[in-house]
Amino acid sequence: MTRKIYENAIVNWPEEDRPREKLLKNGARQLSNVELLAILLRVGVKGKSAVDLARGILQQIGGLRALEQWETEELCTLHGLSLAKVAQIKASIELGKRVLTEAKKTFGKVYSSQQVYDYIMPSMRDLKREEFRALYLNARNQIVKETTISRGSLTSSAVYPREIMSEAFRVGAAAVVYVHNHPSGSIDPSHEDRRVTRELIVAGEASQVSVVDHIIVGENGYYSFADEGVIEANKNEYRQFVGKQ
User: Fold this and answer.
1) What is the pTM of this model?
2) Tens digits of per-residue pLDDT, 28-49?
3) What is residue 119's three-state secondary structure?
């Protein structure tokens, strides 16, 4: 038997009007409460689309807050709400509550090059290949994310400042510390190390994401561009250049 597709079913709507497609294209914030609930419901009932069903439910119970306040058994008495749909709704509400209450994960605080070295050394000291990493810090110098930017010899073509800054904005970072290792064991910065550092500092200053340090990890120690005064010197050079524009 061929099942009839109701004429007002969402599948018959223009794609730009369908809630799920709108969410994927424009983001969840652009959808109404009715449209968001319709996505959870997935399908409507005979004569009603999922959007029509969602609108009717919200009108009947008095708004979104009631979805949380009403017991499962009460919601199941509403036309179009099966036990499975009520479970989906309750689960989505609980996830939303947990997002609001969950503390953002951090990986310790760093206030000096030594603390950065102590944090990163166990995972970088014995690497056979060169790795370049970024430690994103919040305003309290807590590491909110660690990202491997590139593997292999450090060159400006392997590091993309725009992408690094975009990630800093995404995680809400106020500053960044860069770290890379020298498999040879030497901690002396190369010419390319210095050039890449300068490029990253300029990108940070332009984006207002402070570059705190760039550390080279060797076999039995480290080199800190900040401790050697290179970070501050490059920042001052950039600020003087901008001031002359």
Assistant:
1) 0.63
2) 888 899 999 989 988 888 888 8
3) helix
For β-strands 143-151 and 175-181, DSSP reports them as unpaired
Reference 200, options 152, 148, 162; nearest CA is 162
* Mean pLDDT (whole number) for 135-152: 91
Residue 167 has pLDDT above 60, yes or no: yes
Q: Calculate ∠ Cα 206-210-212, nearest 5°.
A: 140
Amino acid identity at 97? K
Which residue, among 56, 58, 53, 50, has the nearest Cα to 17 in the 3D structure? 50
Closest CA to 96 of 64, 70, 72: 64
Q: How far apart are CA 209 and CA 228, in angstroms?
A: 21
CATH number attached to the domain at 10-101? 1.10.150
Architecture of domain 113-243: 3-Layer(aba) Sandwich (3.40)
SS3 content of the chain, % helix, strand, coil (to 5): 50, 15, 35
**pLDDT tens, residue by residue, 56-72:** 999 999 988 888 889 99
Determine the Cα–Cα distance for residues 55 and 45; give it in Å rounded to an integer. Answer: 13
Residue intervals of the chain classified under CATH 1.10.150 are: 10-101
Instruction: Report the C-alpha gap between 101 and 105 in whole angstroms.
Output: 12
CA 201 to chain centre: 22
Mean pLDDT of the chain: 87
What stretch(es) of the chain map to CATH 3.40.140.10? 113-243
How far CA 72 is from CA of 91, 115, 132, in Å, comes to 11, 51, 51
